[in-house]
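User: What would this chain look like folded?
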Amino acid sequence: MSDLEKYIKKRKSNDPIFAENYEEGYSNFKIGVILKEARVQAGITQEEIAEKMNTKKSAISRIENHSEDIRLSTLEKYAHALGLRLSVQLMDG
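Assistant: Here's the prediction, encoded as structure tokens.
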């Protein structure tokens, strides 16, 4: 376990507000990273996906970097612009 991971674990155990906000923030960050990785793997620029989604590059940047409260319909459009299908899964834990 890295020093950062140890710090986060300790801070989460000592500070419930930090723990709650950390998990929510991490989930939002992770969605943005997944979207960006899919776009990069498809070899598509932000400008190109923006054109396919009929929006601006700045909107794509916001989606990838600040994905909190992103609509499911936006995720579907993003996936479709990449030639992909969106799948939502509920899991324990």
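The helical segments are 3-14, 16-41, 46-52, 57-65, 72-81. If you want, I can go into more detail on any region.
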